[in-house]
């Protein structure tokens, strides 16, 4: 992590922007009764056979729950700066999944996005937050890392390092 105030400010701003992005997505999913990913995944083009597996009646409710609450947990993690390195990995995986699901090769979502769209940009920002230990910039990761419990159990350190 850099000691530069400008870079710390940038890391914090990116963390808050990504937190808002995930929390806002969760507000449309986690708190809406009968939210389902079936409509979204049922209309994929490039990898339709793969994504159609997740729309099966036995699997769709579980995946819908994981997506809705995953958005919320990733957003809250970024907001509070707690376990950011873990949440960025899940965030990147989710964003890349959306990128693949929106794909109509070589266009993403519409003819204005050739190979790259906002999902790739967001995933890159999340990777930047991971590399910069963003939870240590005005977040709880730095504080939690110093707790005696975490110090006594080194296996927990990667969660907040």
Structure description:
- The chain is mainly alpha-helical.
- A hairpin with a 1-residue loop joins strand 2 and strand 3.
- The mean pLDDT is 91.
- A 3-stranded antiparallel beta sheet has the order 1-2-3.
- The chain has helices spanning 5-27, 38-41, 48-52, 60-80, 84-102, 118-131, 141-145, 148-152, 157-160; strands at 103-104, 107-108, 110-114.
pLDDT < 50 stretches:
none
Please give the largest β-sheet: 3 strands, antiparallel
What's the end-to-end separation, in Å? 11 Å
Give the structural class. Answer: mainly alpha
* Cα radius of gyration in angstroms: 17 Å
Descriptive labels:
mainly alpha, 3-stranded antiparallel sheet, 9 helices, 3 strands
